[in-house]
Request: fold
Amino acid sequence: MRPAALLALPLAACSGQQSALAPMGPEAAGIAGLSWLLIIGGAAIFLLTMLLLLLAFRGGARLRRRLGSRGAILAGGAVLPTLLLSALLIHTLGLADALGGRSADPLRIEVTGRQFWWEVRYPDHDVVTANEIHIPVGRPVELLLTSTDVLHSLWIPALHGKRDMIPGHLNRLRFTADRPGVMRGQCAEFCGAQHTRMALFAVATTEAGFATWIERQRTAVPAPEDPLLAQGRRAFASAGCGACHALRGTEWSGRNGPDLTRIGARLSLAAGTLPNHRDALRAWIADPQAIKPASAMPGFGAVLAPADLQALAAWLGSLR
Amino acid sequence: MHWRLILGLVGTALAAAALFAWSGVYSVAATSGHYPFFSTFLDFALRQSVATQARGIAAPPLDDPMMIRRGAGHYHGGCAPCHGAPGEARSPVSRGMLPEPPDLGPQIGEWTPAQLFWIVRHGIKYTGMPAWPAPQRADEVWDVVAFLLRLPGMDAAAYRRLALGETEAAVARADEELRLLLLTGPTGNGLAACARCHGRDGGGDGAFPRLQGQSAEYLAAALEAYARSTRPSGVMQPVAAALDPMQIRLLAAHYAGQQPTVPNPPEVAEEDLALGGRIARDGLPDRGVAACATCHGPGPGAPNLLYPRLSGQQAGYIATQLTLFMTGVRGPEAEGPRAGIMARALGVHRERLPARPSLWPLRPDEVRAVALWYAAQPAGAR
Reply:
């Protein structure tokens, strides 16, 4: 790799779906602004210091005497830092206050960290989903964060900073998205073997789009008429998937694993591990431990015939 | 000077021993017996070793008739050929061993239950006494110890009732054996071995798992797992390993075809029923325990043929299997992905097994309750 390409590598993270420097809402914009202020301010102070150092060595005798005077040392070493840091403190406190959010009636979403996925509930809409947070553009959102097993941390850089998810404790995170888009988030607290494959997506849409999505989640999963899909549903029953997974409007209400009501419409499988595709779904059901070792999902390749696996993946994929 | 002398003596002794062994003058024949003092010394060493090694083993209650019956069922196939049994002489073949396997009746009283447990579990070096085929299955070893404690003074009729169950008559009468053989073709032997404990209709006699009402696919898979020793059991491994694939298929089909009989439903307390029923239907989501009924019935829909049905199953068997999963004796490591589904449904992670019963996803009293609830369900309920 050429040196130029190597230098560009760290910058690759600064664009796209998961970047604190590509904010999608006012909170993230505030954080990004502060970041730039610190980066640029820090660089300016560094350059100024280097310039003074250079002058201290190479400058004329008068200049050097002036630089070494008691007044200059007091001004540059005490007064200037005090003023700058105080101003920065006031600015940061104001920003932190704004980041806290103060909306009277935010959209409340409960996000629970599990090894290694995210359960997402909309208590006011009676909706449960997983690994995906849908929000309407312009409406303040309050995430209620907790965990059922170990420490996790939710970080969607384009919307806000990190916030820990602690078993037995509720943390809040408030933000607003100010334009539509898809943002990627990541668990930011080491939580076990598959910490790296614990990602999620936030999808900001218009109010109308959000209402449609909510309605879709609330609709019961119908019994399929297509023979292949019906075979898939039977395979779901036979393998006992419903002991851990819930499907709205069916006899299955398991809570150990993600709710699968509209799994076909999700952006990814297994918390950002696989693209949501019928073949990926089949591979995942057959042998998830080969894809995401130590994840909670056991493999069903030994229990379901290949044709049943195929049909099951087709049926789940059709739940859009 | 001293050191040279000592080294010289030790070296000479070692060389003499090596020369003695090399010459082959010493006979390893079982017929030649031991030198008089040497056999006393060996006996002394054996008793001291067992006494020391068995220290710290705490015996569970051993008077449960079901344990005794299970222990007898294994004793007849696994131990009696060498040690004999009430009314059954030791085989002349095994009597030719050195040391000769003792007739156990008069011997049992010389050992404590813990020492018997240690001997049955670990076997004894250089004697021909084998170790338990599945050392993880302490519960099975205790069954055998429970039976051994009853052995002194047991008469032949009592032994045959315990060890042979309903096959007692069939074994005694040649025409019945022939009928069995005709009924099941080459599996006559296998079936006789199965029926001794599980009954010819798979009813299980209250002490053994009930096989009736299971799918042939599940029973065959279980026998194959026993035969391959992936599913550990010192009782089932030797039986299953003796079966060929055709016999496994026929036996599985035979038991799958038996109509579930209705045994005396167990007496179950109301609160156990309520707790067990709740766990079976809803699981314990907070501890990662899935609802049993989704896979094992009773419930709507056709269950997977590879999952056992539990309605009417013997409670002790269910509780033992749950315990084996909690303690990692059964699980994906040994048995493969199917056991992985069960371990997962119980909330057991193979990387971090619960350290003690109070940390099991299903606590021991909940294991008991769910086992009793299933035992109380009408057999054959889907």
